């Protein structure tokens, strides 16, 4: 009798594992930004529409600057880490700000009105931060 119960549970579990389509809110596009040196190409996520929430120590981003150099990205559960990162860069006299969306908290070290200006400044900010994994993000 016990074996039949286990078999029944197993069949129920397996029947629930049919291929199901993943909802759109879990999907994302990836945008590749090409640079002159193909060995240092960066990959940036294509952003989903963002809802801006203002963190206590983060200033709102100026609307005319739609291109940002992102130095860190955090999950929603790590909002406090993102806020600490912004505070650390501000303490180093850098104009860091927090960009928020339902999916991510991104730390911007500098914003620009054009993509060309942001890409031109990337090498300088790679030197300032000591990181090669920073990228340009366009606010939708």
From TrEMBL:
InterPro entries the record matches: SPOR-like_dom, SPOR-like_sf
Sequence segments annotated as region (Disordered): 38-57
GO MF, one annotated term: peptidoglycan binding
Domain named SPOR: residues: 64-126
Database matches in Gene3D superfamilies: Sporulation related repeat (3.30.70.1070)
Pfam families cross-referenced by the UniProt entry: SPOR
SUPFAM superfamilies given in the database record: Sporulation related repeat
Protein name (database record): SPOR domain-containing protein
Taxonomic source organism: Candidatus Odoribacter faecigallinarum
Organism taxonomic ancestry: Bacteria, Pseudomonadati, Bacteroidota, Bacteroidia, Bacteroidales
């Amino acid at each position: 009798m016990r074996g039949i119960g286990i078999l029944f549970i197993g069949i129920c579990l397996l029947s629930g594992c049919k291929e199901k389509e993943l909802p759109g809110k879990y999907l994302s596009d990836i945008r590749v930004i090409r640079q002159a040196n193909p060995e240092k190409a960066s990959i940036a996520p294509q952003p989903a529409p963002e809802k801006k929430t203002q963190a206590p120590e983060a200033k709102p981003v100026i609307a005319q600057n739609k291109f940002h150099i992102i130095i860190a990205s955090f999950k929603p559960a790590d909002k406090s880490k993102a806020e600490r990162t912004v505070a650390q860069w501000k303490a180093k006299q850098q104009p860091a700000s927090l960009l928020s969306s339902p999916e991510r908290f991104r730390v911007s070290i500098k914003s620009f009105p054009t993509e060309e200006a942001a890409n031109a400044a990337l090498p300088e900010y790679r030197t300032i931060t000591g990181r090669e994994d920073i990228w340009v993000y366009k606010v939708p």
